[in-house]
Amino acid sequence: MNQIKYRKMKNSIFHGVIFCVTLIGIVVLVILLADIIMRGVPYLTKNFFTSFPSRFPKKAGILPGIYGSVYIILLTILFAVPIGLGTAVYLEEYAKNNRFTKFIKINISNLSGTPSIVYGLLGLTVFVKTLGLGKSIVAGALTMSLVVLPIVIVSSQEAIKAVPQYLRHGSYALGATKWQTIRKIVIPTALPGIFTGVILSVSRALGETAPLIMVGAATYVSKLPEGLNSIFTALPLQIYYWMGLPKEQFKDLAAAGIIVLLAILLTTNAITIVLRNKYQKSVE
Fold first, then answer.
1. Taking Cα atoms as reference points, which of 244, 81, 92 lies closest to residue 148?
2. Which DSSP category does 216 fall into?
3. Where is the ABC transmembrane type-1 domain (predicted)?
4. CA geometry: angle at 53 spanning 49 and 55, to 5°?
């Protein structure tokens, strides 16, 4: 009885600590968001969205950062999702369940926790120097694809694992080949889980700064990208640049940039969630 009471007391203390920590985190987050909104909203003018960076706070805008972030995110999704999904399909449906396959899966899971600056160094070595892509949008997007690829692979693997075996067996019983079963049964059923991985990937890619700095993304760009080989900047870099300037008004501009970054993040996540729910309903 004493042991049972001790365990109950221990669990109640643990849950109480978790509740307090969570509550403190929520309060801090609300305070930070309130401060950012109060400082940034007055700067969310038409000029802010249509102008280029300037040494004068009232003339400074975030247009190149928006263009750069949109380019990076779209290209990252284009590169990472097909490769990640294909890798997950191979590992779960085609690869033999041996030590080598388990070794590959463990290392892919470990890569998802690797610091992003390591991927930045890899992108600098492979894409910028070896392949000669230079400080371009393509080099940045390929580097960011390396950052999010393990997340896409792991989430796609889990989604494919969750597909019931009887769906595969029913497809085989009707005479479908393995590839037809994967293409028409497994992948459509697993799409909601795959979209969840894409949401996590987009969220991480939008906020990353270190890999883009390593591949040579600029903090100050006075023109829009003319193509995929152009020099570029991104919203996190623009915010980082403004935070380092001495004038207090630039920190207010950084707060406005954070609001724009959050808006883009929420919009892309909302689109992905809508697509996920749509495919989930069609599967059900």
1. 81
2. T
3. 66-271
4. 135
